[in-house]
Every structure is written in C-alpha cells, then in structure tokens.
Design a protein that fits this description.
Elements lengths: L3 E7 L2 E6 H16 L12 H32 L4 E7 L2 E6 L6 H29 L6 H21 L7 H11 L4 H24 L5 H27 L4 H4 L13 H11 L3 E6 L2 E7 H5 L11 H4 L6 E2 L5 H11 L3 E6 L2 E7 H11 L1
Parallel strand pairs: 2-3, 7-8
Antiparallel strand pairs: 1-2, 3-4, 5-6, 8-9
Helix pairs in contact: 1-2, 2-3, 2-4, 3-4, 3-5, 5-6, 6-7
C-alpha cells in the first residue's frame, strides 16, 4: 500500500498526504485544544467550539505549509523545473522536483520563495488581528488569526536557518556556489546542516519534553546527508553516457515461463529483475516484487506475462547517465532497458549505477 494518497492538483502539481500527516493532524488539534491563550483554546467554555477552533488551527497550519511549498514550486516551474508532487507529512511539506536548478541565482530565488510566502501570510493575519482586536468580533476567532499568523512567522524564521535541507541551507549553497564549485558549496552547506542537527539533538536530550527537537534533528541530519550524496552522484555522472555504464550481456525470460520457474531462475542467476523478451522484442519487465504478490501455491499456474510490468521505460546508449538516475528516482524502479532501433542492447540496474559512481569517484 502506498504511504501517501493524492487529494488533488494545484498548478498541475499532484498534492499528496503522507500517512504520517494523517497521524499528526489529530495530535496538533489536541495540542491546541489542551493549551490556553495565546497558543491554544483550552479556556473556551463551549467544548464543541473549542475543538472546532483547535481543528481549524491544525488544518490552517498545514494549509500554510502547502502554500509555502507552492511558493517554491511556482518559482521552480517558472524556470523550467518539473515538479513531480508536493507531499505533506509529519514535519511539514516536501516538493519533489525532477532536478534542483544548478544556477545559483535561480536556486536563491526558489529557496526564498517559500519563506517569503510564510512571511506574507503571517503579516496579513497579524495585521487583520491588530485591526479587529478592539472590535466585537469573537475573541476565539481573533486568537485563531493571531496563532496561525504567529506560526507562519516561526516557519519563516526557522526555514531561513542556514542549514541543509532547510531553505536557508539552499540560500547558503546558492551564495557559496557563486564563489566555489557547486559540489564544494553543497558539502559546506550540508556540513553546517549536520552540525546544527547534532546541537539540536543534544539540546533535545537535556531539555524536558525535548523529543520533538530530537526528531527534527534526525530529520535534518538525514536530509543533509542525502542531499550531499545526491549532488555528488549527479556531479560524478556528468558527461557519462549510458553506453559507459550499461550491462550488455542481459539475462532475459519469456512471457510463457511460470512464476515457479522464474523463482528457480532468480536463484540461479542472482538478479532481482529481468526483461521479458519474445521474438527479440521486449514485452515487459518482471521483478522479485512482482513474484512476491503471487501466493506460493499458485506460482505453478501463473505465467510471467500475467505479473510483468508492461510499461517499459527505455533509453538509448547515447543518453546521459544522469537521465538513468532521474528515471529510477522519479519512477521508483531498479533498472532501465537500453534500446537501439527498438531492439534491446543492454540494461542499466541500480547496482550498475552505484558501481559506476564508486569507480568514477
């Protein structure tokens, strides 16, 4: 089962809710209902209204996080970067981009767009609060305006901390990239992000109720490490062609083979996925994940053609190796077929890609 569900599209971008978001939303609603002014509504006498205001605050909080991510996405799309999706999860939102722009000026604008949206939302809500706080408008509604506005200012400040993978870390990398190589700028920004995460984690350990600080620190450290590694891989693969990293001796299976025979085949050749070929034409790809979906007692009667993935993603040998990495990441697949005149001439697996990166490094 997928860990996230799509709830719609904005600007053509799929908006998804991660399962962790669905779990944390009631927690935030409860937090707001259990705390008194100005950070909650515990002092509201009517229980139904108290929970309505608390739930509204939680929903508005994550709506603002979504708008924050849309700010990034709008600028990215403006400069030609494709956005795969925006996912709301436990610690906020993530825009899945096909590629982070290498142009420091573009990345600088894109990184600032999200915090800029948060700052504008916070300013508008606080101004509304200041204008209407002496009116007859119900104080609970006014407090809701103030609370969401205040949280947006917190998002603005927190995201501008110069530590990867937060927006401030990207601003820092963009600034450094104008003065040194892109990969050195990434390493410097990632190192700062890791140090910040370590200090935050230590602070959380010695602070009562510091579990959230520890979790956020873990998220920042992992994010900084992954960003650093992904950038290094992209830089290492620049200029490398698919023909330089692909495997030409491809082991294939036929669509008429039974799943039971396929399992024996996998044990013999030790690969987790195979092109399905008939009459020199590629009909699909079958992987160990496909096999796992078939109960053991039924494998003798089920053919490979019934479980294989028919939508085959292929590249040519003259394509850039970086394209393989993008395709594998975006489509969450472990291998890509290489063709020439619609005939398979090789295959690139995730193992081929990682081995090539290690050798090139």
């Amino acid at each position: 089962m997928s860990a996230s569900i799509q709830i719609g599209k904005i600007m053509g971008i799929p908006i998804r809710l991660h399962i962790t978001f669905l779990l944390i939303l009631p927690v935030f609603a409860y937090y707001f209902s259990a705390n008194s002014s100005p950070f909650g509504f515990n002092d509201v006498d009517i229980a139904a209204l108290r929970y309505a205001l608390s739930t509204s605050a939680a929903l508005l909080l994550f709506t603002c996080v979504l708008l924050h991510e849309l700010g990034h996405s709008y600028v990215a799309k403006k400069y030609g970067t494709k956005i795969q999706s925006i996912t709301l999860f436990l610690f906020g939102g993530v825009s899945a981009m096909e590629e982070i722009p290498r142009n420091p000026k573009v990345e600088f604008k894109m990184a600032l767009a999200g915090p800029g949206v948060s700052f504008i939302i916070g300013s508008i809500l606080i101004i509304f609060y200041e204008v209407f706080k002496t009116s007859t408008l119900y104080t609970g509604y006014l407090r809701l305006l103030w609370l969401v506005g205040y949280i947006n200012f917190v998002l603005f400040v927190f995201n501008l901390i110069p530590a990867f993978p937060m927006d401030g870390g990207r601003v820092l990398r963009a600034w450094l990239a104008g003065r040194m190589s892109y990969i050195k700028a990434t390493r410097a920004a990632a190192s700062i992000g890791k140090m910040f995460a370590i200090f935050m984690g230590i602070f959380g350990i010695f602070t009562p109720g510091g579990l959230w600080f520890i979790l956020i620190a873990f998220f920042i450290y992992i994010g900084a490490s992954e960003e650093e590694k992904a950038t290094e891989v992209n830089v290492v693969l620049e200029g490398v062609k698919v023909k330089n990293i692909m495997s030409r001796n491809v082991t294939t299976v036929t669509p008429e083979m039974s799943v039971e025979e396929l399992v024996d085949f996998m044990f013999r050749f030790k690969h987790m996925g195979y092109p399905v070929v008939e009459d020199t034409g590629v009909k699909g790809i079958v992987t160990f994940s496909d096999v796992q979906k078939v109960p053991k007692e039924e494998r003798k009667n089920v053919k490979v053609s019934q479980i294989m993935t028919k939508n085959v993603i292929a590249l040519t040998e003259e394509d850039d190796a970086v394209s393989v990495l993008k395709i594998m990441t975006v489509n969450n697949i472990g291998r890509v077929i290489v063709t020439n005149d619609n005939k398979m001439i090789g295959i690139v697996s995730r193992t081929d890609l990682l081995r090539s990166v290690q050798l090139l490094e």
